[in-house]
From TrEMBL, chains A, B:
Keyword Transferase: no
InterPro entries: G6P_Isomerase, G6P_Isomerase_C, Phosphoglucose_isomerase_CS, SIS_dom_sf, SIS_PGI_1, SIS_PGI_2
Organism of provenance: Cyanidioschyzon merolae (strain NIES-3377 / 10D)
Pfam families noted in UniProt: PGI
GO terms, biological process: gluconeogenesis; glucose 6-phosphate metabolic process; glycolytic process
Name of the protein: Glucose-6-phosphate isomerase
Recorded family membership: Belongs to the GPI family.
CDD domains: SIS_PGI_1 (cd05015), SIS_PGI_2 (cd05016)
EC number: 5.3.1.9
Assigned GO CC terms: cytosol
Length: 648, 648
């Protein structure tokens, strides 16, 4: 457990951010960089000393875990410094040369259970990989992976385990955490999901007017939505899943913008619709507001009765009392646990329930099996790390950001069915690693937390690839499949449609890596004045994942691969990838604004001076507009209790 | 015209990229930065001199336009250097302080035709804005805007005018370019669109089996898809447009992945479907392949006749001969012109045709009117630039990237109907400004070309906002509306659903700007060891756009605003925002791969040694898989001509 150091111990002096970068960024030089860097570090002098990050009082609560006496920032280790020096050697090499070295090219790859990973177009040599493994050893990566697997409370700020992998453990596995066998709990809920989804699909569970429930609206936001939506799209055109879903519809309602409600309900009949409310706490503001809106919709079409709610609404939540208060049958509550983070929850009831109703439980099981397969690779730390796909991808991620300075990266699945995968991974990765302190609470003084984006190929090529070729360097991941879900050969074409797609898949990484020289342009006879506009510098790194076919199993594999890539990076960087304290401030301020809007609109109160002039003027302008609907009785903060979001 | 300098004149010596940065990045210091920077600049020494960017032979073709004798890179001007110095002053200020200055806050805003822009949360003072205007004068911004408006060939590498604004000019306006009145051409096509869309909507134009055509599939990729798709989503829930679209369906087929075909056609009947093929050249590989697939689908359902194609397929294209060869009636070809770039084409027939069929031509006209409104603001360079919204936004964009070093930016529309707006602007902005040379062909030695991304609010808050608060600094644009399309008041709630959405809209910019100090956390009684994890540094810039309501007019306004923001940045940076040579290399390589796949799959040829070992091994693995369909007669490159993409 001592792999994880804890917040609280006094910092070894000064504000981390003021440390001059010395050997860290030999090319960047002075402290000025730190001020200019994209992390707007406020040093102690700023804001009249009110920022005391790094300078704190002795801890009053005993730290949860012991601190190793040899603790240093990862950037202060010899292994890190060696990589910094190595980066300047790498800077003298171009991928054109590196790709000519067949021995190198053939060693920078790995394979596991049908996933073929080729990372030869990364700006690395075999030495780089060795140095990265040395860094991993220094960061005690293996210990941290074991700790995660064993259920230790590695989410130290929330004092929780991180066990999304347990959600897809085998039924006969066992994992006791804090006195409970979590795998048994997982399968209890999965069995419940299977049983309930079968009753809905068969028509045994019907709606209040006796009709079978053909449509599902899953209400949830963030992790309660992006994961299931990505999997839904990935399943949708798999031939078997497609058959299983015939005649059924699944929609996701996430945004509090009432337009989203309109979009979800406009083609549906409430009598045939089941609503799944997804919120672990059953207090997420947007979700509860939408839950009430959905309940109103059901009542407006079928009458205002408890039975309507009991038959048409179910919940994925851990807060059974709140669920019951809302009117949902507690027997139709599907649990998930504290050790499941929102963005890691798609394998829990959050995904299992809506997806099993739509596609059948067997389809969802295959998805879990795929994720389990890559979990096994990730957890197999007894085997050489060179065969551990998430570890390789995570180390390369650290290399690209912290050592080569690439602040963004792009994900290009060459499969239309994965069109929502980049958005899900955007959340998984950015919400996990967009942090600025180590577990112990020290400011990081190295870059962490990439911007992730992407679009399926070939669409992205016609959108932003111009910039990928000629603008900033953005490391890319290309994901492709050997077999298409829908082979199509059109007579007269040189290749099938899938081959056409994949021709681009094979070409783009080389185009990015090689670029095009002025001499090559000249040799083609291009006019001299145009040549600078045609030259691309190349040397832009990518990696390629080639899988057999996109089916539920492969979808699970890809999910787990990218979840664990994020975890590996967080382990190296010594940050907590599993909390998300940064969103709190926005919620608190929104609560204040909500109160102000209510008090101004319905009770004529002026806007408080606690808001700055810009926000006051914006709110005034806003309030002058029509709200467009009326409350019979406006909520009165002085009389009624606003508990943040009560479910009544 | 001399605002635009031309490629071709001998460079004033040396490779631009080797210039030591001197005063440019005083904080970044040495040349090493240039090697480390995200632009993988290959200096002359690399790759054994084969890169000759900047070092070129005297031009053999006369340059298209005269060169001013005082030409320098914009980064070498006094105005630029003053901004660099100013940036280090700004670095000592925090937005918390800046937002207290009511005079400053109230001056950093502008308004135009219902659009309210508040940029007080940018990391600027009033001095910064003055310095930016001085830079704009030095860059001859006003001349460049006038040149664009007048139809000069500002797209110097393709020798074309840039006149997407003419697409929404008033009918009685006139603009003669190269001897032709382009506005008259625009209205000729718009009238044709109106006439044809009315015939389809009324049922006068029917399908081959006599049925009215209720569904439209628009086939196109990149600019031929992302713009129309964003507008489609924006219109979809506007109450009037919704009524006009009742009973009709519009889908976009873009990807060459055959799964996209399946997704588009699975719920449609060919007898009731009209297919619009969008490709200016009528040679875009993916689009033509999909066009053939669509034609096969129509034929498979209605028989293999010319009449089926004539009645069910139309084209937006300038290549009438190719269109006719495909079998489409040339009278059903809707033209657009060389001076309309793909990513700027949504106001042309590309958007007009499918959107008018779906929503009625009057709806689309209102959209054009909105765009025209902001064009007028942008072109009104006789008035003070402080009232020119695109100019302000463009200058702030340059400030944020080139001077403050923020490599990405995010776009958060607080309106579910704008869910596809960020993806469209991602293309518009990244494909336009992801460049590395000036118009003249010199390497830029300053950062250009941001990464753009975004999600509608509040969804993004539950996804990546953690990183926006605690990770890299990413300047944000928040777009909100005073009136909702669907007001909803749920009894017992403190506020309407729209007010709930907007409470977040008003809160997030202040959360990003102010952050939270350790002292504030301590005052709340948080445990000491947790405090570093709760502190956010704030000082994260944003701007706010508040409009009255989201309707077709406002949609057009927003489109034009962001199109022109991109143009302003390109003008300041002296790059060509209107070409896209970077995508060429990928297309050429894909062509080679396509040929190899054909020759290996159907004629047993081994994979050529011209591919590197990684690509060879990947392709071999791929070819071992099943293609899943057969050609009656495989295309033979030695016998048949592959013209890249023949439409037959």
């Amino acid at each position: 457990m001592s792999a994880f150091v804890v917040p609280g111990w006094p910092l070894r002096g000064g504000v981390a951010g003021s440390r001059r970068s010395r050997a860290l960024y030999p090319h960047h030089g002075s402290a000025g960089l730190l001020r200019r860097r994209a992390f707007p570090r406020c040093t102690a002098g700023d804001v009249r000393g009110s920022y005391t990050v790094g300078r704190r009082l002795p801890s009053e609560t005993p730290p949860p875990l012991p601190v190793p006496t040899d603790y240093v920032l990862i950037s202060e280790t010899a292994e890190w410094r060696r990589l910094v020096e190595h980066a300047s050697e790498i800077d003298r090499l171009h991928l054109r040369e590196l790709m000519q070295d067949v021995d190198r090219v053939r060693s920078l790859r790995a394979e596991y259970d049908g996933i073929y990973l080729d990372y030869s177009r990364q700006r690395v040599t075999k030495d780089t990989i060795e140095l990265l493994f040395a860094l991993a050893r220094r960061a005690r990566l293996v210990d941290k992976i074991r700790a995660m697997q064993s259920g230790a409370h590695i989410n130290v700020t929330e004092r929780r385990a991180v066990l999304h992998t347990a959600l897809r453990a085998e039924r006969n596995a066992s994992l006791v955490v804090d006195g409970t066998d979590v795998v048994r709990d997982v399968w209890r809920v999965l069995d419940h999901v299977r049983e309930f989804s079968e009753r809905v699909r068969s028509g045994e569970h019907r709606g209040a007017t006796g009709k079978p429930l053909r449509s599902v609206i899953a209400v949830g936001i963030g992790g309660s939505y992006l994961g299931p939506d990505f999997v839904h799209e990935a399943f949708r055109t798999d031939p078997e899943a497609f058959e299983a879903a015939r005649g059924r519809h699944l929609h996701f309602l996430s945004n509090v913008d009432p337009v989203d409600i309109k979009r979800c309900t406009q083609d549906l009949s409430a009598e045939e619709t089941l609503i799944v409310i997804v919120s672990k706490s059953f207090t997420t503001a947007e979700t509860l507001l939408n839950a009430r809106a959905m309940r109103e919709w059901l009542w407006s079409e079928m009458g205002r009765s408890d039975e309507v709610v009991r038959l048409h609404m179910v919940a994925c939540s851990s807060n059974v009392p709140m669920v019951e208060k809302f009117g949902i049958d507690p027997r139709n509550t599907f649990e998930f646990w504290d050790w499941v983070g929102g963005r890691y929850s798609v394998c829990s009831a959050v995904g299992a329930l809506p997806l099993s109703i739509q596609y059948g439980f067997p389809t969802f099981l295959r998805f879990l099996e795929g994720a389990r397969s890559v979990d096994a690779n990730f957890y197999d730390v007894a085997s050489p790390l060179a065969g551990n796909l998430p570890v390789i991808m995570g180390l390369l991620g650290v290399w690209n950001l912290s050592f080569l300075g690439y602040k963004s990266r792009a994900l290009h699945p060459y499969a239309e069915a994965l069109l929502k995968f980049p958005a899900h991974i955007q959340q998984v990765d950015m919400e996990s690693n967009g942090k600025h302190v180590t577990l112990r609470g020290d400011d990081v003084d190295y870059a962490v937390g990439e911007i992730d984006f992407g679009e399926p190929g070939t669409n992205g090529q016609h959108s932003f690839f111009q910039l990928l070729h000629m603008g900033q360097t953005v490391p890319c991941d290309f994901i492709g499949f050997i077999e298409s879900q829908y082979p199509l050969c059109i007579e007269g074409e040189p290749v099938s449609n899938a081959d056409e797609l994949m021709a681009n898949f094979f070409a783009q990484p080389d185009a990015l890596a090689y670029g095009k020289t002025a001499a090559e342009c000249r040799a083609e006879g291009r006019p001299e004045w145009l040549i600078p506009h045609l030259v691309t510098t190349g040397n832009r790194p990518s990696l390629t994942l080639l899988l057999q076919r996109l089916d539920p199993y492969a979808t699970g594999q890809l999910l787990a691969l990218y979840e664990h890539r994020t975890a590996v990076q967080g382990f190296i960087w010594d940050i907590n990838s599993f909390d998300q304290w940064g969103v709190e401030l926005g919620k608190v301020l929104a609560k204040r604004v909500r109160k102000q809007l209510n008090e101004s609109r319905y009770f004529g109160r002026p806007i408080s001076e606690e808001f700055n002039a810009s926000t006051r003027d914006l709110m005034e302008r806003y309030l002058r507009g029509q709200v467009g609907c009326v409350f019979n009785e406006p909520f009165d903060y002085h009389r009624d209790t606003d508990t943040g979001r009560s479910p009544l």
